[in-house]
Structures are given as structure tokens and as C-alpha cells.
Design a protein that fits this description.
globular; alpha+beta; ten-stranded antiparallel sheet
């Protein structure tokens, strides 16, 4: 049973890493300049942001609403398609959920720098850019801080799920609008039992872009 779970995890993550992430990065790079779009409303770190999320499950892909509630730049509530997601799902396992960890505390985004992270040789690239306007988002971002990650695992044991060997996860990212203080778009992985309420397995991959801020 454990070996079976391990193989399912390795297969799913490998498929996501090779087949899904690279096309999504292409979509993210295909930005459009739409003068009529408003900038993201400025916040003081307390806001509710709604995203359109493409959720990849072992059984296929679904499109759902993702809601992030922030208080004092800390992520306090998460809802995906009406299911309440515990913040721990954005945190575990460390490094595989690196983007989720940054979303939990927006102040951490400013502290991240280019370089190697952790014992697994994870690479983090950080850059600043100007106007970014995704075709499907009603907002344009005016001052974007982008963080892109890549992690290599020779052996990764995931409590309650099994383990994987020689795994590379490329292309998880976060585009954060510094002007408003709101995440604009991101890709992240969730490995948590709550995923079973949405998928038929405890792992899911999410690509989300901003649709509403209040």
C-alpha cells in the first residue's frame, strides 16, 4: 500500500512538473497591455482577494474560486470552491510548499532573495518588473515582484503519504503586486488530507489569478 501511494505521488507530481507547469508558465508570459483595466486596489494588509483557480487532480482538471482572507498581511482564512482549507495545507511539506509559505505571510516575500534554499538545493529567483496585465484578470499589476522556485529531491519522505526519490519540481511561482500589496497570480502545490474533499487524492496543483479585491 505504501509503495502504491509512493508511486501515485511520484507519478502525479512528475506529470505536473513536466506537462502542466511549463505550459502554464507560457500562459503567464503571454501578458497583454490593456489600458482600460484598473490597477489593483491598494490595501493596508487587510483584505479579501478572490481568484480563479485551475485545480489539477489525478482525475482531471477543475476550475474553482479561491478566496484568501488577509489580516495584517497574514493569511487567516482560505476557501477553495466552498471548502475551507487549513493554513497548514499551504505550509507542508516545507519547500515543496514554498510558494504557499510565502502566501501565508506577505512580509516574507520582501525577505526572499536569489539563491539556494534548504538542504535539497532549491533555487529561488526573484525579480522586479513593471506593468503586467493577464488576459483573464480584470486588473493590471503595476509593480510586480516575481518569485520562481525549483527544487531537486534525491529522497523526500512525506509523513502519511509515502516517499519519492530523484524528483525535480520546476516553475512554481508567485507574482506579487507591490503597489497594492496583493498577490496577483501564483502556482502552488498542496499535499494535505483536505485535498480529498476536492480531488480523489491528497495532492492537488493550483494555478490562480486575481479576479476581485475588497
Amino acid at each position: 500500500m505504501l509503495k502504491s501511494r509512493m508511486l501515485r505521488i511520484a507519478l502525479l507530481i512528475s506529470v505536473i512538473a513536466v506537462v502542466v507547469i511549463l505550459p502554464l508558465l507560457f500562459i503567464m508570459s503571454d501578458v497583454v497591455s490593456v489600458a482600460q483595466k484598473p490597477s489593483i486596489p491598494k490595501t493596508n494588509g487587510t483584505f479579501t482577494a478572490t481568484y480563479t483557480a485551475r485545480v489539477l487532480c489525478p482525475s482531471g482538471e477543475r476550475t474553482m474560486n479561491l478566496t484568501l482572507v488577509y489580516r495584517g498581511k497574514k493569511l487567516t482564512e482560505i476557501y477553495l470552491g466552498g471548502v475551507r482549507i487549513p493554513p497548514a495545507a499551504f505550509r507542508y511539506p516545507h519547500e515543496l510548499s514554498y510558494i504557499g509559505e510565502l502566501l501565508l505571510d506577505l512580509d516574507m516575500i520582501y525577505k526572499v532573495d536569489n539563491g539556494t534554499v534548504g538542504a535539497f538545493g532549491g533555487l529561488v529567483k526573484k525579480r522586479h518588473s513593471g506593468l503586467v496585465s493577464l488576459a483573464n484578470s480584470p486588473y493590471k499589476a503595476t509593480s510586480v515582484l516575481s518569485i520562481l522556485t525549483s527544487f531537486n529531491y534525491t529522497y523526500l519522505e512525506i509523513k502519511g503519504h509515502g516517499f519519492v526519490k530523484n524528483l525535480t519540481i520546476n516553475g512554481l511561482f508567485l507574482d506579487f503586486d507591490e503597489e497594492s500589496g496583493v498577490p496577483y497570480a501564483f502556482q502552488l502545490s498542496i499535499l494535505h488530507n483536505v485535498a480529498r474533499q476536492i480531488c480523489d487524492f491528497s495532492y492537488m496543483f493550483i494555478y490562480a489569478y486575481l479576479t476581485k479585491v475588497k
